[in-house]
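User: Is it possible to get a 3D structure for a protein together with its bound compound? The compound here is magnesium ion. I've pasted both below.
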Amino acid sequence: MLIALLPGDGIGPEVIAETVRVLDRVTDQLRFETAPVGGAAYKAEGHPLPPATLDLAKRAKAILFGAVGDPDCDRLERHLRPEQAILGLRKELGLFANLRPATLFKELADASALRPEVAGAIDMVIIRELNGDVYFGEKGMRKTASGRREGYDVMSYDEDEVARIARVGFETARARRGKLCSVDKANVLETSQLWRDVVIEVSAEFPDIELSHMYVDNAAMQLVRNPGQFDVIVTGNLFGDILSDQASMCAGSIGMLPSASLDASQKGLYEPIHGSAPDIAGQGKANPLATILSAAMMLRYSLGLSAEADRIEAAVATALEKGARTPDLGGKLTTTQMGDAVLAAL
Ligand code: ATP
Ligand code: MG
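Assistant: Yes, that's possible. Here is the predicted structure of the complex:
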């Protein structure tokens, strides 16, 4: 199975290198091809998402992505900036569902922003719709009748967009503890009223799943008060952007959190939620676990290798249990030594 490796900028290549070592240990079914992306691609080829990179991403069964972002490129025109590469990949590949698990490894309870007994119960996946909502509606700046400036962004969803992400939510819940919480603001927003109606309609296909609804303001509170109540959350682009960052703080370090962006079939792009971290690039300080855990998601969701995914996640837990810590977790291990610790556990 062909895997596109897009290491990108900053710590991207460092964390991808450790991840490939781990993948090679658990399976011999993968074939890797590497291509430049982001600032690295701009410097080499004049574009953050060169045609050959996009072609590789299209041909591959799954994409393992490091990070993009390079301070040298900050003053480029918008379409040449490294960040455009990930937006382009999402659009070109039709990746509409962003899955972010938030799990606190119990060994890291002291690193969470929440009390250990609250944080210890966190085991959820937040699913954020990526292709619609206020990000893509009509937007602009105009003058009001009295000559004041007015900005506007239209929020819209059609029922097919909602049904498609709802199904991802129900399917994900089915593979976990069978509970789906749909988050909206149906008391105020028309889009949310449609969202709620469509989620209820789709729920007829999933009688085995326990469905609940929550307003987004309450969901923000409940994520801090009692995060253990959630199994799978499904929500729109804007609410998901905010709630998934909030949930990530429960997990101890940004260096621990994986993500998947999926299309309508089994294809996906897998990446750590963190960026290129230019402040620590090239120093061996990056925590590779977010990327290693992203690779586990790739095995599970795109490649049908669940047992191998379980092995990687168990090995990460074992490494942490034995005290393996990079600097972001309060330790002294280098990126490679953390990779070694996971390999030793495997
Ligand atoms: P982006 O805009 O690409 O999301 P960002 O500006 O949000 O990037 P990050 O690159 O994610 O920033 O870095 C934020 C902080 O977290 C930095 O101080 C960075 O060093 C730290 N950090 C990010 N990833 C890791 C990691 N894997 N290991 C250790 N520290 C990390
Ligand atoms: Mg960021």
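Residues 95 and 232 are 19 Å apart (CA to CA). The mean pLDDT is 94.
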